């Protein structure tokens, strides 16, 4: 079964229609809402493109950090939160800060890739 156009291609088409055709004809609050819709679609595009790899990387880090063999990322994140809450895991736990930083960077790359702090956080000399 052919799935052309793909969901990502459909989202891109709608986003570009808003950007290139609709928004230039709008003013004020309506133009602002069209820009918000365009940005939301761009975020969905990035989630489709980058989300699976980011999720897999987070799951692998969480499994290593918690010594867990199974569990989806959400369940492992809840487990980590509980371990932090009880004091079983702390900032001194090897791998915790690396996991938190990598997770934040992955999320920013999807949600707000133009965020100025992202460029600073991803500099090679920034630990």
For the largest beta-sheet, the strand count, sense and barrel status come to:
none
Order of SSEs: HHHHH
Number of helices: 5
Shape: elongated
* Class by SSE composition: mainly alpha
Main attributes?
127 residues, mainly alpha, 5 helices, 72% helix, 0% strand
Summarize the helices and strands and which ones pair or pack.
Elements: H1 7-22, H2 28-66, H3 73-86, H4 96-111, H5 116-121
Helix pairs in contact: 1-2, 2-3, 2-4
Description:
With 127 residues, the protein is mostly helical. The chain contains five helices and no strands. It has one domain (7-121). Helix 1 runs antiparallel to helix 2 (28-66), helix 2 crosses helix 3 and helix 2 (28-66) packs antiparallel against helix 4.
In short:
The protein has helices at 7-22, 28-66, 73-86, 96-111, 116-121.
